[in-house]
Amino acid sequence: MAGAATHEFMTTNVPDSLIPYDEIVQEALRAVVGRVLGTVAATQALPGGHHFYITFKTHAPGVDIPQRLIERFPDEMTIVLQHRFWDLKVDDEKFSVGLSFNQVPAMLNIPFSAITGFHDPAVNFELRFQAQEGDMDPEQHDEAENDGPAVKPPEDGSNVVSVDFKRKK
């Protein structure tokens, strides 16, 4: 009898974890993005039909993009790495890449911690990350015009890894 009462107590009053599992998992999944981009950076070309949609917070610490892009995308921006990109460089913390927006070239420096989404429509693979603490819901914005029309991810959630741990405020 005492065992049943203890079990009920443990499932209804789960203690807060002293191990930051959510941060560890997100860091590991962002490392997946870094590894994929690092592979592409080695050849400066995408293999086969692979291409990437990368969404990031434009005001996250360490993001360095032209002011005109920050003004156009004040909260979140999606870039496309497909046909027209150059000088992709990747390290453990961030990546940088050259892209054109309305025929105007720009260099973007984006820390992996700023990324909120990564999608490779060629194989229907997607990662989503929770926004930085304190961020509000993203504002509606126009799609980035750097590489063509956006492809919406499937509604059924196939091949989507979503990390959305709730944090206490």
Structure description:
The structure is a single chain. The chain has 169 residues and is an alpha+beta fold. The chain has a single domain, classed as Roll (SH3 type barrels). Helices cover 24% and strands 27% of the residues. It contains 3 helices and 8 strands.
Shape assignment: globular
Strand order of the largest sheet: 2-1-6-7-8
Give the helix proportion (percent range). 10-25%
Number of domains: 1
> What is the CA-atom radius of gyration, in angstroms?
19 Å
End-to-end gap = 37 Å
Q: Tell me what the CATH architecture is.
A: Roll
User: Count of DSSP helices?
Assistant: 3
Q: CATH homologous superfamily name?
A: SspB-like
Strand content: 25-35%
The top-level CATH class is: Mainly Beta
Low-confidence stretches: 1-10, 133-141, 149-154, 158-162, 164-169
Biggest sheet: strands, sense, closure?
5 strands, mixed
Number of strands: 8
Describe, in short, the structure shown.
The chain is an alpha+beta fold and 169 residues long.
SSE order and pairing:
Blueprint: H1 2-12, H2 21-43, E1 52-57, H3 67-72, E2 76-81, E3 86-90, E4 94-101, E5 104-111, E6 115-120, E7 125-128, E8 160-162
Parallel strand pairs: 7-8
Antiparallel strand pairs: 1-2, 1-6, 3-4, 4-5, 6-7
Properties at a glance:
alpha+beta; SH3 type barrels; five-stranded mixed β-sheet; globular; disordered C terminus
